[in-house]
Description:
7 strands; binds zinc ion; single chain; hypothetical protein PF0899 fold; three-stranded antiparallel sheet
Amino acid sequence: MPLTACPEMHELSLCEGVLQILEEQSGIQGFLRVSRVCLEIGALAGVEPEALRFHFDAVTRGTLAEGAILEIVAVPAQAWCLPCGEKVSIRQYFDACPQCGSHQLQVIGGEELRVQQLEVE
Ligand SMILES: [Zn+2]
């Protein structure tokens, strides 16, 4: 269940996106309540976990996910290193390759958010 983060998108709209996914899934899977949401956030998504929690509580009030626990898992970004010819993990834009120190990296992932797991009732 991926969600695309873009630079203009702030935490509030992301939370609305997450809620939308929960509501869709409740229709598909037939659950009524969500008690826990595990959200994967790429290191390059530029999302502030504390702001996300704050908005999540506000956005889910009065919905199927009211009071749900929001678990945030930070995932490292992936880049392709030209000199190494392989995928490496980076923490931020313009990081050097952890293996060879090169800056010839092409970012290939890490800007996305993903609902990794749900606990439902
Ligand atoms: Zn390298």
